[in-house]
TrEMBL record:
Belongs to the P(II) protein family. This is Nitrogen regulatory protein P-II. GO terms for molecular function: ATP binding; enzyme regulator activity. It comes from Acetobacterium bakii. InterPro entries: N-reg_PII, N-reg_PII-like_a/b, N-reg_PII/ATP_PRibTrfase_C, N-reg_PII_CS. One of its GO terms (cellular component) is cytosol. GO terms for biological process: regulation of nitrogen utilization.
Amino acid sequence: MKQIEAIIRPEKLEPLKDAFLACKINGMNVRQVLGCGNQHGWIARNRGTSVMINMIPKIEIKIVVADDRVEEIVQVLIDTVRTGEIGDGKIFIKPVEECIRIRTGERGDIAL
Ligand SMILES: Nc1ncnc2c1ncn2[C@@H]1O[C@H](COP(=O)(O)OP(=O)(O)OP(=O)(O)O)[C@@H](O)[C@H]1O
Ligand SMILES: [Mg+2]
């Protein structure tokens, strides 16, 4: 099992949710986060003064999938949220040791 963590633009949450539901993922967690990438934010100009805005609102999505679905899900993600502009976000993939469905006690892929 792997956890796919994606940091995306807030306006991409709805389309991504639809795309994920269409390919029958088992569950997801969504959080609002503040973050910055390589540009370290952006410069806002207001009446002649410039202010560095370092932390930009983003959406963090975490889903756990069976190993053999990782590439398919990553491709859906990229196809749905990519604009080609800076700030499109990032995907982190991490190993997940175990999943246990509390109601039944099932473990592993079947519990996803
Ligand atoms: N190395 C990182 N570690 C943790 N979070 C990150 C990292 N890089 C990016 N993020 C998160 O992803 C968000 C979007 O990052 P962003 O797309 O700007 O990355 P980037 O590497 O600067 O790419 P780009 O050049 O396309 O902007 C950030 O606001 C932050 O929340
Ligand atoms: Mg960036």
